[in-house]
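Incident log, structure service

09:12 report received: a user says their structure output differs between two submissions of the same chain.
09:20 pulled the input from the user's history:
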Amino acid sequence: MRGPLHRYRALVAAGALEPDPAQERAAERLQALEDALARARRFRLFAGPQPAPRGVYLWGEVGRGKSLLMDIFFNNSAARAKRRVHFHEFMAETHERIARFRALDARKRKRAPGTNPKSIDDPMPPVAFEITDETKLLCLDEFQVRDIADAMILGRLFDALFARGLVVVATSNRPPDELYWDGINRQLFLPFIDMLKSRLDVLELEAARDYRLARLTGAPVYYRPLGPDADEAMDDAWAQLICGAREREEKLYVQGRMLIIPRVARDAARFHFRDLCQKPLGAADYLAIARRYGAIFIDRIPRMSPDMRDAARRFINLIDALYDTRTKLVCSADGEPADLYPAGDGAVDFGRTVSRLLEMRSADYLGAERTPKAANA
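09:34 re-ran on a clean worker, output below:
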């Protein structure tokens, strides 16, 4: 047998994952979806289009393994046109697609694929056509709705996507009924929740423990001083967190620019200090990284002399973004936080960074729920 359940059990057997009945039940449901997708592909060859299988909405508390299970499903699905993407990245792309459609003149809009000729000003049919032309299986990680601009288009967007046969697997920290809780005009959002529950099986992942917190608190997250021992400890911590996942390179688009994220696995990313703070990156770049990844590894943070004030300023901005979004940090450094930039332009501001670095090592911070929509967004 191949597929997500086989892979999950293989990881447990190899000791990369701890046995957990709730995770196994979720893997079994994802295997059922993979089997349904395979049957739909076979039937399509002989009997034409078939109704799309029901998707899965997997929710639960932080660190229970939702993103891990989605990765296992995605990496071991035979679906050809599939995509795994963070929910906020998907919505940002959707807003860009809508803006591009609206920028077309009326004649071009009328000819756009998927356009309803009776309503050429409605961007949803052509946007849904674009998305489903590229993707038949969409895996959305960290599904959470806080932005009114997202809330007001989700119903119409997903109505058009489901009508075109899109299959969705989503992870979230909240059940569907709590999405956009206390949001402006939430009553207009409620039909989307009903649609979501009618198209996706809602499954709570009641895993026995917070595995990400256990992996992060089971060992230090701040290694000093720099050297082979710290490098080895970082490698061990990274291997523990990603649980055997395949690493990949990923691209983020920030204000029209492309950032290359060199090492990504699960919802974690790993960088060398020089790639984050000794290159011309700004606050918007750091916030995009913090929103996208639940854990950031930074190798070899040096002691910064006064002539490294630009790198120190970037490091301040980076830590602010990670702290505001409650992104977890694992790093190696050439000393305690207070020793990293003791003098130079901005050293007073660096005091805030010292305080935050100390707090980010605490169990309370490591156990805090992520807030990808930071207050300063």
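09:41 both user submissions now match this output. Likely a transient worker issue. Closing.
09:42 reviewer note: The chain has a mean pLDDT of 87. Residues 4-204 form a domain with the Rossmann fold fold (CATH 3.40.50.300).
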